[in-house]
Amino acid sequence: MEQPTYSRDEIYDVIGIGLGPFNLGLAALLEPVAEIKGLFFERNQQFNWHPGVMIDGTTLQVPFMADLVTMADATSKYSYLSYLQEHQRLYHYYFLENFHIHRKEYNHYCQWAAGKLNSCRFGMNVRHVSLTEQAGRPLYELEVWNEKSGQLEIYFTKHLVIGIGTTPVIPEHLAEHVDESFFHSSQYMNHKQRILSSNSITVVGSGQSAAEVFQDLLKEQELRGYSLNWLTRSKGFFPMEYSKLGLEYFSPDYIEFFYSLSQQKKDELLPKQDLLYKGISAATIAEIYDELYRRTIANESIDIRLQAMTEVCEARKDSGIWNLTCKNWVSGEMNAQSSEVVIFGTGYKQTEPFFLNGITHFIQRDDKERLVIDRHYALKQTSYTENQIFIQNGELHSHGVGAPDLGLGAYRNSVIINQLAGREVYPVQQKNVFQTFSQTQTKESNALYHAMTSS
Protein backbone atom coordinates (compact mmCIF):
# COMPACT_ATOMS: atom_id res chain seq x y z
CA MET A 1 0.00 0.00 0.00
CA GLU A 2 1.31 3.44 -0.96
CA GLN A 3 2.45 5.55 1.99
CA PRO A 4 0.36 8.66 2.66
CA THR A 5 1.80 12.10 2.03
CA TYR A 6 1.97 14.35 5.10
CA SER A 7 1.39 18.10 5.03
CA ARG A 8 5.03 18.70 6.10
CA ASP A 9 3.97 18.92 9.74
CA GLU A 10 2.01 22.05 8.91
CA ILE A 11 -0.67 22.70 11.52
CA TYR A 12 -3.77 24.64 10.53
CA ASP A 13 -5.92 26.62 12.92
CA VAL A 14 -9.06 25.36 11.22
CA ILE A 15 -9.98 23.02 8.39
CA GLY A 16 -13.42 23.13 6.84
CA ILE A 17 -14.89 19.98 5.31
CA GLY A 18 -17.43 20.50 2.54
CA LEU A 19 -17.61 23.59 0.34
CA GLY A 20 -21.21 24.61 0.05
CA PRO A 21 -22.18 28.29 0.36
CA PHE A 22 -21.66 28.34 4.16
CA ASN A 23 -18.09 27.05 4.30
CA LEU A 24 -17.25 28.99 1.14
CA GLY A 25 -18.45 32.12 2.93
CA LEU A 26 -16.33 31.19 5.93
CA ALA A 27 -13.27 30.85 3.69
CA ALA A 28 -13.95 34.29 2.19
CA LEU A 29 -14.40 35.96 5.58
CA LEU A 30 -11.29 34.25 6.97
CA GLU A 31 -8.99 35.41 4.17
CA PRO A 32 -8.22 38.86 5.68
CA VAL A 33 -7.87 37.43 9.22
CA ALA A 34 -4.09 37.03 9.43
CA GLU A 35 -3.92 35.12 12.72
CA ILE A 36 -6.17 32.27 11.55
CA LYS A 37 -4.72 29.82 9.06
CA GLY A 38 -7.53 27.94 7.36
CA LEU A 39 -7.96 25.28 4.70
CA PHE A 40 -11.14 23.92 3.08
CA PHE A 41 -11.74 20.58 1.35
CA GLU A 42 -14.45 19.55 -1.11
CA ARG A 43 -14.62 16.13 -2.75
CA ASN A 44 -16.27 17.43 -5.94
CA GLN A 45 -14.08 18.89 -8.66
CA GLN A 46 -15.69 22.33 -8.52
CA PHE A 47 -18.35 24.31 -6.71
CA ASN A 48 -21.74 23.38 -8.13
CA TRP A 49 -24.82 24.29 -6.14
CA HIS A 50 -27.80 21.94 -6.61
CA PRO A 51 -27.22 21.39 -10.35
CA GLY A 52 -30.15 18.96 -10.56
CA VAL A 53 -32.64 21.78 -9.87
CA MET A 54 -30.87 24.54 -11.81
CA ILE A 55 -34.07 25.24 -13.76
CA ASP A 56 -33.80 28.16 -16.16
CA GLY A 57 -35.18 31.38 -14.67
CA THR A 58 -35.41 30.23 -11.06
CA THR A 59 -34.12 32.58 -8.36
CA LEU A 60 -33.02 32.46 -4.76
CA GLN A 61 -35.75 33.14 -2.21
CA VAL A 62 -33.57 35.60 -0.31
CA PRO A 63 -32.23 39.04 -1.35
CA PHE A 64 -28.78 39.43 -2.95
CA MET A 65 -27.35 40.63 0.38
CA ALA A 66 -27.56 36.99 1.51
CA ASP A 67 -24.38 36.38 -0.45
CA LEU A 68 -21.23 34.85 1.03
CA VAL A 69 -20.07 37.88 3.01
CA THR A 70 -22.18 41.05 2.89
CA MET A 71 -24.15 40.57 6.12
CA ALA A 72 -20.83 40.33 7.99
CA ASP A 73 -18.68 42.68 5.90
CA ALA A 74 -20.37 44.86 3.29
CA THR A 75 -16.93 46.04 2.07
CA SER A 76 -15.61 42.56 1.26
CA LYS A 77 -14.13 41.99 -2.17
CA TYR A 78 -16.06 38.71 -2.27
CA SER A 79 -19.51 40.32 -2.24
CA TYR A 80 -22.06 39.77 -4.98
CA LEU A 81 -21.79 43.43 -5.95
CA SER A 82 -18.02 43.04 -6.35
CA TYR A 83 -18.70 40.04 -8.59
CA LEU A 84 -21.09 42.10 -10.71
CA GLN A 85 -18.59 44.94 -10.95
CA GLU A 86 -15.80 42.63 -12.07
CA HIS A 87 -18.09 41.12 -14.70
CA GLN A 88 -19.29 44.57 -15.84
CA ARG A 89 -22.89 43.79 -14.89
CA LEU A 90 -23.56 46.41 -12.20
CA TYR A 91 -25.73 48.57 -14.43
CA HIS A 92 -27.55 45.55 -15.82
CA TYR A 93 -28.44 44.48 -12.27
CA TYR A 94 -29.28 48.05 -11.28
CA PHE A 95 -31.81 48.34 -14.12
CA LEU A 96 -33.17 44.86 -13.39
CA GLU A 97 -34.53 46.17 -10.05
CA ASN A 98 -34.79 42.71 -8.55
CA PHE A 99 -33.39 41.78 -5.14
CA HIS A 100 -33.51 38.07 -5.92
CA ILE A 101 -30.53 36.56 -7.73
CA HIS A 102 -31.00 33.99 -10.48
CA ARG A 103 -29.74 30.64 -9.19
CA LYS A 104 -27.58 30.22 -12.26
CA GLU A 105 -25.84 33.52 -11.53
CA TYR A 106 -25.55 32.76 -7.81
CA ASN A 107 -23.81 29.51 -8.71
CA HIS A 108 -21.45 31.36 -11.05
CA TYR A 109 -20.80 33.97 -8.35
CA CYS A 110 -19.82 31.24 -5.87
CA GLN A 111 -17.56 29.60 -8.46
CA TRP A 112 -15.93 33.01 -9.03
CA ALA A 113 -15.27 33.41 -5.29
CA ALA A 114 -13.97 29.84 -4.92
CA GLY A 115 -11.56 30.42 -7.79
CA LYS A 116 -10.04 33.41 -5.99
CA LEU A 117 -9.57 31.70 -2.62
CA ASN A 118 -6.29 29.82 -2.21
CA SER A 119 -7.65 28.08 0.89
CA CYS A 120 -10.28 26.18 -1.10
CA ARG A 121 -9.20 22.77 -2.44
CA PHE A 122 -11.51 20.79 -4.70
CA GLY A 123 -11.22 17.10 -5.57
CA MET A 124 -10.18 16.41 -1.97
CA ASN A 125 -12.21 13.64 -0.33
CA VAL A 126 -11.94 13.52 3.48
CA ARG A 127 -12.08 9.85 4.44
CA HIS A 128 -11.33 9.80 8.14
CA VAL A 129 -10.91 12.17 11.09
CA SER A 130 -9.25 11.21 14.36
CA LEU A 131 -7.93 12.98 17.44
CA THR A 132 -4.19 12.62 17.81
CA GLU A 133 -1.31 14.29 19.62
CA GLN A 134 1.68 16.08 18.22
CA ALA A 135 4.42 17.65 20.34
CA GLY A 136 2.23 17.23 23.41
CA ARG A 137 -0.78 19.03 21.97
CA PRO A 138 -4.06 17.46 20.79
CA LEU A 139 -4.89 17.90 17.10
CA TYR A 140 -7.35 16.54 14.59
CA GLU A 141 -5.74 14.34 11.96
CA LEU A 142 -7.46 14.15 8.58
CA GLU A 143 -6.93 11.44 5.98
CA VAL A 144 -7.74 13.04 2.63
CA TRP A 145 -7.80 11.33 -0.75
CA ASN A 146 -6.51 13.62 -3.49
CA GLU A 147 -8.60 12.72 -6.53
CA LYS A 148 -6.21 14.43 -8.95
CA SER A 149 -2.95 12.85 -7.77
CA GLY A 150 -4.47 9.58 -6.61
CA GLN A 151 -2.67 9.88 -3.26
CA LEU A 152 -3.71 9.80 0.36
CA GLU A 153 -2.66 12.96 2.21
CA ILE A 154 -2.56 13.68 5.95
CA TYR A 155 -3.39 17.08 7.45
CA PHE A 156 -3.42 18.38 11.04
CA THR A 157 -5.63 21.08 12.50
CA LYS A 158 -6.62 22.54 15.85
CA HIS A 159 -10.28 22.95 14.91
CA LEU A 160 -12.81 21.69 12.37
CA VAL A 161 -15.83 23.23 10.66
CA ILE A 162 -18.19 20.69 9.15
CA GLY A 163 -20.58 21.59 6.35
CA ILE A 164 -23.14 18.93 7.23
CA GLY A 165 -25.10 19.06 4.01
CA THR A 166 -28.33 17.22 3.28
CA THR A 167 -29.48 14.19 1.32
CA PRO A 168 -32.69 13.88 -0.75
CA VAL A 169 -35.65 12.17 0.89
CA ILE A 170 -38.22 9.93 -0.77
CA PRO A 171 -40.88 8.39 1.52
CA GLU A 172 -39.34 5.29 3.08
CA HIS A 173 -41.99 2.87 1.81
CA LEU A 174 -41.34 4.02 -1.76
CA ALA A 175 -37.57 4.48 -1.77
CA GLU A 176 -36.88 0.94 -3.01
CA HIS A 177 -38.46 1.79 -6.36
CA VAL A 178 -36.05 4.58 -7.33
CA ASP A 179 -34.95 4.41 -10.96
CA GLU A 180 -34.75 6.71 -14.00
CA SER A 181 -38.53 7.18 -14.05
CA PHE A 182 -39.12 7.31 -10.28
CA PHE A 183 -36.73 9.77 -8.63
CA HIS A 184 -36.15 12.81 -6.42
CA SER A 185 -36.46 16.34 -7.79
CA SER A 186 -32.75 16.90 -7.02
CA GLN A 187 -32.12 14.82 -10.19
CA TYR A 188 -34.67 16.61 -12.34
CA MET A 189 -32.31 18.36 -14.77
CA ASN A 190 -30.33 15.12 -15.23
CA HIS A 191 -33.48 13.39 -16.51
CA LYS A 192 -35.43 16.29 -18.03
CA GLN A 193 -34.79 15.75 -21.74
CA ARG A 194 -35.70 12.08 -21.50
CA ILE A 195 -38.88 12.53 -19.45
CA LEU A 196 -40.24 15.22 -21.79
CA SER A 197 -41.00 12.42 -24.26
CA SER A 198 -43.18 10.63 -21.66
CA ASN A 199 -46.96 10.37 -21.96
CA SER A 200 -47.66 11.12 -18.28
CA ILE A 201 -45.77 12.77 -15.43
CA THR A 202 -46.63 13.10 -11.74
CA VAL A 203 -44.96 15.50 -9.31
CA VAL A 204 -45.24 14.74 -5.59
CA GLY A 205 -44.66 17.37 -2.87
CA SER A 206 -45.63 20.94 -2.05
CA GLY A 207 -42.39 22.78 -1.41
CA GLN A 208 -40.56 25.20 -3.68
CA SER A 209 -38.66 22.48 -5.55
CA ALA A 210 -41.84 20.54 -6.37
CA ALA A 211 -43.55 23.75 -7.49
CA GLU A 212 -40.65 24.75 -9.74
CA VAL A 213 -40.51 21.30 -11.36
CA PHE A 214 -44.28 21.38 -11.93
CA GLN A 215 -44.08 24.91 -13.35
CA ASP A 216 -41.26 23.94 -15.71
CA LEU A 217 -43.21 20.92 -16.95
CA LEU A 218 -46.33 23.04 -17.27
CA LYS A 219 -44.50 25.35 -19.70
CA GLU A 220 -43.52 22.38 -21.87
CA GLN A 221 -46.84 20.55 -21.77
CA GLU A 222 -48.60 22.29 -24.68
CA LEU A 223 -45.78 21.37 -27.02
CA ARG A 224 -45.13 17.87 -25.64
CA GLY A 225 -48.67 16.71 -24.97
CA TYR A 226 -48.18 14.67 -21.80
CA SER A 227 -50.68 14.52 -18.92
CA LEU A 228 -49.45 16.27 -15.78
CA ASN A 229 -50.41 15.63 -12.15
CA TRP A 230 -49.34 17.36 -8.94
CA LEU A 231 -50.00 15.58 -5.65
CA THR A 232 -49.10 16.53 -2.11
CA ARG A 233 -49.74 15.12 1.30
CA SER A 234 -49.85 18.67 2.69
CA LYS A 235 -53.13 20.44 3.43
CA GLY A 236 -52.73 22.58 0.33
CA PHE A 237 -50.40 24.34 -2.08
CA PHE A 238 -49.65 27.08 0.38
CA PRO A 239 -47.21 29.99 0.18
CA MET A 240 -44.15 30.29 2.35
CA GLU A 241 -44.39 33.00 5.02
CA TYR A 242 -42.72 36.01 3.46
CA SER A 243 -44.17 39.01 5.27
CA LYS A 244 -41.64 41.49 6.57
CA LEU A 245 -42.34 40.76 10.24
CA GLY A 246 -42.38 37.04 9.46
CA LEU A 247 -38.90 37.35 7.98
CA GLU A 248 -37.65 38.61 11.34
CA TYR A 249 -37.69 34.99 12.49
CA PHE A 250 -34.57 34.59 10.35
CA SER A 251 -32.48 36.81 12.59
CA PRO A 252 -29.83 36.48 15.30
CA ASP A 253 -32.46 37.74 17.75
CA TYR A 254 -34.76 34.80 17.10
CA ILE A 255 -31.83 32.36 17.26
CA GLU A 256 -31.03 33.77 20.72
CA PHE A 257 -34.62 33.25 21.84
CA PHE A 258 -34.98 29.78 20.33
CA TYR A 259 -31.70 28.52 21.73
CA SER A 260 -32.75 29.54 25.24
CA LEU A 261 -35.79 27.23 25.14
CA SER A 262 -35.77 23.70 26.52
CA GLN A 263 -35.27 21.00 23.90
CA GLN A 264 -38.81 19.78 24.55
CA LYS A 265 -40.19 23.24 23.71
CA LYS A 266 -38.03 23.41 20.58
CA ASP A 267 -39.27 20.05 19.36
CA GLU A 268 -42.88 21.13 19.93
CA LEU A 269 -42.38 24.45 18.15
CA LEU A 270 -40.49 23.44 15.00
CA PRO A 271 -43.27 21.38 13.33
CA LYS A 272 -45.59 24.37 13.71
CA GLN A 273 -43.21 26.59 11.74
CA ASP A 274 -43.11 24.65 8.48
CA LEU A 275 -44.39 27.51 6.36
CA LEU A 276 -41.53 29.72 7.51
CA TYR A 277 -39.18 27.65 5.36
CA LYS A 278 -41.01 24.83 3.58
CA GLY A 279 -43.77 26.46 1.52
CA ILE A 280 -43.87 27.81 -2.03
CA SER A 281 -43.10 31.41 -2.92
CA ALA A 282 -46.25 33.42 -3.57
CA ALA A 283 -44.78 34.55 -6.90
CA THR A 284 -44.37 30.95 -8.09
CA ILE A 285 -47.95 30.10 -7.09
CA ALA A 286 -49.21 33.18 -8.92
CA GLU A 287 -47.29 32.31 -12.09
CA ILE A 288 -48.63 28.75 -12.04
CA TYR A 289 -52.19 29.97 -11.51
CA ASP A 290 -51.88 32.55 -14.29
CA GLU A 291 -50.72 29.86 -16.70
CA LEU A 292 -53.57 27.54 -15.72
CA TYR A 293 -56.02 30.40 -16.24
CA ARG A 294 -54.57 31.28 -19.66
CA ARG A 295 -54.75 27.67 -20.77
CA THR A 296 -58.46 27.34 -19.83
CA ILE A 297 -59.77 30.49 -21.53
CA ALA A 298 -62.99 29.74 -23.46
CA ASN A 299 -63.37 26.61 -21.32
CA GLU A 300 -60.50 24.84 -23.03
CA SER A 301 -59.75 21.56 -21.26
CA ILE A 302 -56.31 20.75 -19.89
CA ASP A 303 -54.88 17.37 -18.95
CA ILE A 304 -53.71 18.55 -15.54
CA ARG A 305 -54.68 17.49 -12.04
CA LEU A 306 -53.72 19.15 -8.76
CA GLN A 307 -54.62 17.28 -5.59
CA ALA A 308 -53.69 18.13 -2.00
CA MET A 309 -54.22 16.09 1.18
CA THR A 310 -53.17 13.03 -0.83
CA GLU A 311 -50.35 10.60 -0.07
CA VAL A 312 -48.90 7.92 -2.29
CA CYS A 313 -49.34 4.71 -0.31
CA GLU A 314 -48.03 2.20 -2.82
CA ALA A 315 -46.32 2.07 -6.21
CA ARG A 316 -46.07 -0.81 -8.66
CA LYS A 317 -44.46 -0.75 -12.09
CA ASP A 318 -46.14 -2.64 -14.89
CA SER A 319 -45.02 -2.47 -18.53
CA GLY A 320 -43.19 0.80 -17.93
CA ILE A 321 -46.10 2.48 -16.15
CA TRP A 322 -46.20 3.29 -12.43
CA ASN A 323 -49.53 2.39 -10.84
CA LEU A 324 -49.95 4.52 -7.73
CA THR A 325 -52.34 3.78 -4.89
CA CYS A 326 -53.23 7.09 -3.26
CA LYS A 327 -55.21 8.09 -0.20
CA ASN A 328 -56.88 11.33 0.80
CA TRP A 329 -55.95 11.31 4.48
CA VAL A 330 -58.76 13.76 5.35
CA SER A 331 -61.72 12.00 3.69
CA GLY A 332 -60.18 8.53 3.75
CA GLU A 333 -60.93 8.02 0.05
CA MET A 334 -58.62 5.76 -1.96
CA ASN A 335 -57.87 6.22 -5.63
CA ALA A 336 -55.56 4.81 -8.26
CA GLN A 337 -53.43 6.85 -10.64
CA SER A 338 -51.04 5.85 -13.38
CA SER A 339 -47.96 7.72 -14.52
CA GLU A 340 -44.97 6.97 -16.71
CA VAL A 341 -42.72 9.22 -14.60
CA VAL A 342 -42.95 10.13 -10.89
CA ILE A 343 -40.85 12.97 -9.45
CA PHE A 344 -40.61 13.46 -5.68
CA GLY A 345 -40.08 16.99 -4.42
CA THR A 346 -40.25 15.68 -0.87
CA GLY A 347 -37.38 17.55 0.70
CA TYR A 348 -34.06 16.73 2.26
CA LYS A 349 -32.74 15.45 5.57
CA GLN A 350 -29.59 16.30 7.48
CA THR A 351 -26.99 13.56 7.47
CA GLU A 352 -23.99 12.98 9.67
CA PRO A 353 -20.76 12.55 7.68
CA PHE A 354 -19.22 9.07 7.89
CA PHE A 355 -15.73 10.52 8.34
CA LEU A 356 -16.68 11.52 11.91
CA ASN A 357 -16.83 7.84 12.91
CA GLY A 358 -13.30 8.06 14.30
CA ILE A 359 -14.29 10.68 16.87
CA THR A 360 -17.98 9.95 17.35
CA HIS A 361 -17.36 8.64 20.89
CA PHE A 362 -16.20 12.15 21.89
CA ILE A 363 -19.41 13.80 20.69
CA GLN A 364 -22.40 14.40 22.95
CA ARG A 365 -25.87 13.44 21.74
CA ASP A 366 -29.36 14.10 23.05
CA ASP A 367 -32.01 11.46 23.79
CA LYS A 368 -32.90 11.38 20.08
CA GLU A 369 -29.27 10.78 19.07
CA ARG A 370 -28.95 14.28 17.62
CA LEU A 371 -25.76 16.29 17.94
CA VAL A 372 -25.65 18.58 20.99
CA ILE A 373 -24.51 21.99 19.75
CA ASP A 374 -23.62 25.00 21.88
CA ARG A 375 -24.77 28.57 21.25
CA HIS A 376 -21.60 29.32 19.23
CA TYR A 377 -22.17 26.39 16.84
CA ALA A 378 -19.59 24.06 18.38
CA LEU A 379 -20.32 20.42 19.18
CA LYS A 380 -20.42 19.63 22.88
CA GLN A 381 -17.96 16.86 23.64
CA THR A 382 -17.94 14.17 26.30
CA SER A 383 -14.71 15.42 27.83
CA TYR A 384 -13.07 18.82 27.84
CA THR A 385 -10.91 19.65 24.87
CA GLU A 386 -9.82 22.94 23.39
CA ASN A 387 -10.20 21.41 19.92
CA GLN A 388 -13.58 22.54 18.66
CA ILE A 389 -15.80 21.08 15.94
CA PHE A 390 -18.15 23.71 14.51
CA ILE A 391 -21.28 22.81 12.56
CA GLN A 392 -22.74 24.54 9.50
CA ASN A 393 -26.44 23.88 8.79
CA GLY A 394 -26.80 20.98 11.19
CA GLU A 395 -28.43 22.88 14.05
CA LEU A 396 -32.10 23.14 13.07
CA HIS A 397 -33.12 21.26 16.22
CA SER A 398 -31.04 23.49 18.52
CA HIS A 399 -30.94 26.94 16.84
CA GLY A 400 -34.20 26.99 14.90
CA VAL A 401 -35.58 27.57 11.43
CA GLY A 402 -32.77 29.87 10.32
CA ALA A 403 -30.18 27.06 10.18
CA PRO A 404 -30.41 26.46 6.40
CA ASP A 405 -31.12 30.09 5.50
CA LEU A 406 -28.48 31.74 3.30
CA GLY A 407 -29.20 35.10 4.94
CA LEU A 408 -27.85 33.86 8.28
CA GLY A 409 -24.73 32.20 6.88
CA ALA A 410 -22.52 35.26 7.31
CA TYR A 411 -23.83 35.76 10.87
CA ARG A 412 -23.01 32.17 11.85
CA ASN A 413 -19.58 32.51 10.25
CA SER A 414 -18.98 35.73 12.21
CA VAL A 415 -19.74 33.88 15.44
CA ILE A 416 -17.43 31.00 14.49
CA ILE A 417 -14.57 33.29 13.44
CA ASN A 418 -14.86 35.31 16.64
CA GLN A 419 -14.62 32.07 18.62
CA LEU A 420 -11.57 30.92 16.67
CA ALA A 421 -9.81 34.27 17.07
CA GLY A 422 -10.79 34.79 20.71
CA ARG A 423 -11.78 38.34 19.84
CA GLU A 424 -14.44 40.23 17.91
CA VAL A 425 -13.22 40.12 14.33
CA TYR A 426 -16.70 40.68 12.89
CA PRO A 427 -19.13 42.64 15.08
CA VAL A 428 -22.36 40.84 15.88
CA GLN A 429 -25.30 43.20 16.44
CA GLN A 430 -27.53 42.56 19.43
CA LYS A 431 -30.70 44.18 18.08
CA ASN A 432 -31.65 43.45 14.47
CA VAL A 433 -35.47 43.34 14.46
CA PHE A 434 -38.37 45.52 15.54
CA GLN A 435 -40.21 42.82 17.50
CA THR A 436 -39.04 40.98 20.59
CA PHE A 437 -39.42 37.28 21.24
CA SER A 438 -39.14 37.20 25.02
CA GLN A 439 -39.47 39.46 28.05
CA THR A 440 -35.73 39.12 28.67
CA GLN A 441 -34.97 40.57 25.24
CA THR A 442 -37.39 43.43 25.91
CA LYS A 443 -35.63 44.33 29.16
CA GLU A 444 -32.19 44.10 27.54
CA SER A 445 -33.34 46.28 24.64
CA ASN A 446 -34.76 48.91 27.01
CA ALA A 447 -31.55 48.93 29.06
CA LEU A 448 -29.48 49.40 25.89
CA TYR A 449 -31.75 52.23 24.74
CA HIS A 450 -31.47 54.05 28.07
CA ALA A 451 -27.71 53.61 28.12
CA MET A 452 -27.44 55.09 24.62
CA THR A 453 -29.75 58.05 25.26
CA SER A 454 -28.21 58.97 28.61
CA SER A 455 -24.61 59.03 27.31
UniProtKB/TrEMBL annotation:
Cofactor(s), names only, from the UniProt record: FAD
Matching InterPro entries: FAD/NAD-bd_sf, Lys/Orn_oxygenase
This protein's record includes keyword Oxidoreductase: yes
Gene3D superfamilies registered for this protein in UniProt: FAD/NAD(P)-binding domain (3.50.50.60)
Reaction it catalyzes: L-lysine + NADPH + O2 = N(6)-hydroxy-L-lysine + NADP(+) + H2O
Keyword Signal assigned: no
Keywords: FAD, Flavoprotein, NADP, Oxidoreductase
Associated pathway: Siderophore biosynthesis
GO MF assignments: L-lysine 6-monooxygenase (NADPH) activity
UniProt EC number: 1.14.13.59
Entry's family note: Belongs to the lysine N(6)-hydroxylase/L-ornithine N(5)-oxygenase family.
Protein name (record): L-lysine N6-monooxygenase MbtG
